[in-house]
Amino acid sequence: MQPPSSAYEPDVGLNLHTHLEGCVRPETAADLARTMDVPEPSGGWDAALRMKEPANLTVFLAHVAAAYPVLGAPDAMCRVAREAVEDAAADGCDFLEIRFGPATHARADFSIPQVIAAACEGLEDGRRATGLVVGLVVCLLRHSEDETNLAVARAAAAAAGKGVVGLDVAGDELLFPSLAPYREPYSIASAAGLGLTAHAAEAATGAAAVEAVATLGVTRIGHGSHIADDPATLAWAAREGIAIEVCPTSNVLTGTAPSVREHPLHAFLAAGCRVVLGDDNPINIGSRISGEERRLVEEGGLTWEQVRGIHLTACDVVFTDESTRATVRARLEDRPVDAT
After folding, report:
1. Domain range for residue 307?
2. Residue 115 located in a structural domain
3. Which residues pair with 140 in a beta bridge?
4. Residue 256 in contact with residue 223, Cβ under 8 Å?
């Protein structure tokens, strides 16, 4: 699915939900595969990584997972992280929060702390090259063993202030619905001053988002689509000021939303919820944050002023220091909004 054409290219704001695993360029995957002796997927790397039409979450995740074999080495992780920042900067992004699950990429000779360090190094290389401010959100994985998730949280906490800005939990909500195993990892992250978010209510009901806030102390919810299904939960999210990270194109491709026009973000905005924007897995979905903005206007019916309002909300909830927050907000507020 390609972003719609538009004569007007808006200034791009903050991207608060994108996965490093979904930022691997096909040509980079091919190059790394040759050096790492990873066989080429049937049909080639472009077909393996890019989702061409709507399907379901299982198909979507298979495209994301196609990149995993080329991320299990320090130089590879560093390169992919650097290129992710370069690509986001080329798209015009103002601030990038990028997340990943380090346990997926750890090997006997590539420990979880080393995986995080390699990603941070690549992100910093990209920042120096482009000037784009970037922070890393580390993901626990629902299917991982408890000890593995504790090791991830400890490594993330140790890297606080060195590139890591937050903690997340991702994975299959329906197979692994309990949040109790993540209390201790989130407590470790909170004590280190990391921001807290969680994938919730994407496949499960809106009650999963309520539980994530109550159990884990998160201030943001990734996707959260099913919050919109229940008026009481929707009112709760608005009342509590919970920020919902929406990824419209991704949700359409996975079948979570029938279209951008019918995406639950409209219910979120109407209820007064905080909404922020992400592109989820830009290589896999064929759309970056600028494409998400255009879709919200051209297909979703939002105004450019509303899009800027989403980004101003993101300034309030982004996991960064107050000086950076103020700088990014000032840039957004100083820009004229072109309504054409």
Report:
1. 14-333
2. yes
3. 169
4. yes
Cα(24)–Cα(97) distance, rounded to whole angstroms? 16
Closest CA to 139 of 182, 107, 108: 182
Question: In 272-335, where does DSSP find H-type helix?
Answer: 282-285, 289-298, 304-317, 322-334
DSSP codes joined into one string, 33-51: HHHHTPPPPTT-HHHHH--
- Report which DSSP code applies to 20: G
Q: How far apart are CA 45 and CA 54, in angstroms?
A: 19
| Number of domains into which the chain is organized | 1
Over residues 6-60, the pLDDT tens digits come to: 433 456 899 999 999 999 999 999 999 999 999 999 999 999 999 999 999 899 9
d(CA 257, CA 265): 10
- Asked whether residue 7 is assigned to any structural domain, the reply reads no
Query: In whole angstroms, what is the distance from residue 87 CA to residue 134 CA?
Result: 12
**Quick count: other Cβ atoms within 10 Å of Cβ 12?**
22
Characterize the bridge pairing of strands 95-100 and 14-19.
parallel
Query: Residue 214 is part of a domain; what is its CATH number?
Result: 3.20.20.140
Which is higher by pLDDT, 180 or 7? 180
On whether residue 1 sits in a domain, the answer given is: no
142-158 per-position pLDDT tens digit: 999 999 999 999 999 99
> Residue 221 and residue 241: Cα distance in Å, rounded?
11
In a domain, 234, yes or no: yes
193: tokens are: 């001053």
CA-wise closest residue to 182 among 121, 140, 124: 140
- Which pTM was predicted? 0.95
**CB-CB contact of 279 with 287 (8 Å):** yes
The DSSP output letter for 107 is B
Q: Which residue has the tokens 């840039």?
A: 331
Q: Are 88 and 289 in contact (CB under 8 A)?
A: yes
Which neighbouring-strand residues pair with 89? none
